[in-house]
Amino acid sequence: MTIAPSPTIGRIGHEREPIIVIDGFSSNPAALVEDAASRGFSPLGPHYPGVRAPLAGKYLSERMDLLQRLLADVFGFRNGANLLECNFSLVTTQPGALGVMQRLPHFDAADPGRIAILHYLCGPAEGGTAFYRHRSTGFETVSPSRMEDYSGMLEAELAQRGAPEAGYLRGDTSLFEQTYRVEAAFNRLVIYRGWTLHTGLIPEGHPLPDDPRAGRLTVNTFLQAQ
Question: How confident is the model at residue 57 (pLDDT cuts 50, 70, 90)?
Fold first, then answer.
């Protein structure tokens, strides 16, 4: 029987959204990397700047007791959560090829019951994840009641100022202020609500290889509260 790692719980920005970091999550992360290397990756949807390969969510079962406790104690999900999707992910899109929305912070769903689980299978050289506040609205999360205001304001700002220069977002901009960041670390798991504005931190000049053994490999899982 493996000993469950200890989670660290932080709070993001003014809205104090919870974020959980668990180092040493998997007892055999190297096997996950080799599993990824054996799979065929392909683009999946218009928003992710790279390629993905499906992974069965059962890989989380090793730490299911820990995850269920954290979902209940930290996020208030007393009835558990359902798996929506789980994928190996590799960032491979070069900065100059990014779409406009890929150059900005994003949210996964305007739903407090949507949970994102990000498992790094790469090291610190691959950057990390940053969280943001939209300056003009002050929003750090996008709820259903905020969706119209946020989308309308952002659309107006982009129309007035033009699209951001092609490239991955790093640090503060005229539209967004960075409020929190988590550094990549091999076998580090990060849990947060999907309505939080965030983006991947991609180091400048990173070659973005498509080899899972050498690239920015993560597992991205989404859960929905019951």
Answer: confident
